[in-house]
Amino acid sequence: MTALHTNPLFDRLADAERILVAGAGGGFDVYAGLPIALSLLHQGKEVLLANLSFSHLAGLPLADWAAPDLATITPRTAPHQTYFPERTLARWLEAHDYPATVYAFPQTGVQPLRAAYRALIVLHRIDAVVLVDGGTDILMRGDEAGLGTPEEDLTSVAALAALDDVPCRLVVSVGFGVDAYHGVSHALVLENIAALEREGAYLGAFSIPRATREGALFLDAVAHAQEHTPDRPSIVSGSIAAAVRGSFGDVQFTTRTSGSELFVNPLMSLCFAFDLPGLAARCLYLDRIEDTHLMRQVHSRIAEFREDLIPRPARRIPH
Questions:
Q1: First CA to last CA across the chain, in angstroms?
Q2: pLDDT at residue 114 above 80?
Q3: 319 occurs within a structural domain
Q4: What's this model's pTM, rounded to 2 decimal places?
Q5: What domain of life does the native source organism fall in (predicted)?
Q6: Is residue 221 part of a domain?
């Protein structure tokens, strides 16, 4: 049993030597895992970074592929591409003297993504995986009124759920409240977390203070990404960074959110941690996407699952 003065997530990772921190949902999700990755690096762990990618990977030369559906991204990969979060992160890592390789998975179904994860795990003898979602839709079990955009997140969960040879598999959700504009009821998120607590899969939460070394570096990395991706800055990473800085309310930092009212708040800087197999066991449609090979199959299987569903209605957090 973990003592109160220790962190359950890092306690689970204490004996791991080679840890993979991976973004679950594409885009800039890997940035949400950066504070944890940096903390592990500063503890002397070997840490690899990976991301389910929205970047254009199809045009990369054969030499950039470590295995099928597993691209190796460095600071010099595809210099002509303007939107490339994995390369942007690799450049920031290099500038700060950290290992500057970020692996990228193209958008596929569960089966090829699992094979790519397995190849990466074998290649680097990974003994722990931390899957990170920038947002909370990874916590949706499928019967909620609004799921947000769970397809990529739950494809990642399903891919890793069957890799039993990795002794430690964890999920971290960062950015509580950011998915409200995607229809997620955060009262239902809290209800789901409570259920995961009862089942022993919730490992508690901790914040990313800006006064820590990792918090300050995270803010610097997000600012760097915003500078180098001015046309498509990450709303999620920007919101989390604003919360880490202590901003509150309708904090507008990109024209992408013009016309929407944001609610940046301190809960966005909390990292909610979970046991991945326990989280996977609560998803009501995970078996339906198990044999998928394409992301569009994942979309259609989830839609089919919800056709005759009577959803749990959205709830309001009392105020």
A1: 35
A2: yes
A3: no
A4: 0.96
A5: Bacteria
A6: yes
